[in-house]
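Model it.
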Amino acid sequence: MHKLIMMFAGLLGCVGVYADSSFSLLLSGASIHSGCQQGKGEKAKSCEFNNNNPGLGLEWAFAGNEDNGRWFTRAATYRDSFEQQAWYVSVGYRKEWQIIGPVYLGAGVQTGYLDGSGIKGLAALPIISLGSKNVALEIGYAPKTNTVGQHKRVNVTTFSLRWSF
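Modeled.
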């Protein structure tokens, strides 16, 4: 956790403070694993992954606006699909569109350093979001990849909440 706080503080210092910035609390929650395979072409009977992935993080939206989209940086930790503590720091971009009343639909991507979920290095995650300006459900999708040391290929869909304050 100490590494996570230091890296987030470093990101804040590198980017600078903007008057139009906002902060959000990130609540990780769950994941769905699909398309499980072991080895080459051998079908697995079940995914055998932990789908309960609680975690906390912070987001700082530091540049951009409602018309052009927002740039953000994140730092978070969560319990990964291998039941280990994972953490990441990332930078991303998100654009949101008002679809009806106070409801917004958004699309974006984040990329950064991930230590967990079978990865220790650079990773990217496309995200769609649905909610209001203050609270949104975020759904991320990572297609099949070979995870380090696990020899399984699996699609992962993640679910989390973003609460802006």
